[in-house]
Design a protein that fits this description.
The chain has 274 residues and is mainly α. It has helices spanning 2-13, 17-23, 27-32, 48-54, 59-73, 98-122, 129-156, 167-192, 195-227, 230-247, 251-266, 268-272.
Length: 274
């Protein structure tokens, strides 16, 4: 009987995590206790066994998590937990490799923009040319820095080192497409001078990017670092440098733009004027 249940539990580890959560909602609490946010994930189609690897659980934590899952799926039964098939993992903490650190550093400027968005929404002006121009500049930052410069490094370079059919990469790519759709909506709304639609899409973009960056900084990049060889890391760094030489010259302009927004909308002086 135990062997049959072990095979059944193994079958569950090969199912999409959202399907498991729908069938057994309490599984979400077990995952959340290890900061595995599958409930809030946009797709949630990762296999359970892949989630364990991607989130770099220690063998001890993996065993506890699997036991908790077994108790939920098979309450009151003694279930043998399948042994981990993974090799001993490298440490999950510590610093990033040089190319991953570069991506994380680029996130800092994007996060500064995201932090300004609520106040930026409050000051939206579509009735004057200067107000519309500021919105165009903000959209240009999203399209040129966050997307063409930063996301392109991931899509055209980094992801090519991995199987792009992996669910975690599909999730990240779906986020990128979602962000691009928000930009298209904003541009169309700006043409119509539709302040409400611009505001709604800016808020959706900010919410999306907040979770997106967290997934990349805390999960994706660290998982990739654990799976790249030293030679691959060197190649990545060289390729990123090539992108910087081609597109990075505009970075100071965008840093200055974000600083201008912070001064205009979130500085102490700006807050005192309200």
């Amino acid at each position: 009987m135990t062997q049959q249940l072990e095979l059944t539990l193994t079958d569950y580890t090969n199912k999409n995590i959202k399907d498991i959560i729908r069938e057994f909602p309490a599984v979400a609490d077990v995952l959340n206790s290890y900061n595995i946010g599958c409930v809030s994930c946009g797709l949630g189609t990762c296999l359970f066994k892949d989630i364990v690897q991607i989130h770099a659980l220690s063998p001890e934590d993996e065993a506890v998590l699997m036991s908790g899952m077994a108790r939920i799926i098979f309450p009151g039964r003694e279930v043998a937990v399948p042994a981990s098939q993974r090799k001993t993992r490298p440490p999950a903490g510590g610093g990033y490799s040089p190319p991953m650190k570069k991506l994380v550093d680029e996130h800092r400027l994007i996060k500064r923009w995201v932090a300004v968005i609520p106040a930026f929404i409050g000051g939206l002006d579509v009735s004057t040319e200067s107000g519309r121009e500021l919105i165009r500049e903000a959209i240009d930052f999203i399209r040129s820095y966050a997307d063409k410069y930063h996301h392109a490094k991931e899509e055209a370079i980094l992801f090519k080192y991995f199987d792009e059919n992996l669910e975690i990469i599909k999730i990240i790519l779906a986020d990128h497409e979602n962000a691009r759709a928000r930009v298209r909506e904003m541009l169309a709304a700006l043409e119509r001078r539709d302040k409400e639609i611009i505001a709604a899409n800016l808020k959706a973009y900010a919410d999306l990017l907040t979770e997106h960056i967290k997934k990349e900084d805390e999960v994706l990049y660290r998982w990739m670092d654990r799976n790249l060889t030293t030679h691959q890391v060197g190649n990545l760094f060289s390729q990123f440098q090539g992108t910087d030489e081609e597109l990075g010259s505009a970075t100071p302009k965008y840093e200055e733009f974000i600083s201008k927004l912070e001064k205009k909308f979130t500085s102490k002086e700006a807050q005192n004027e309200r």
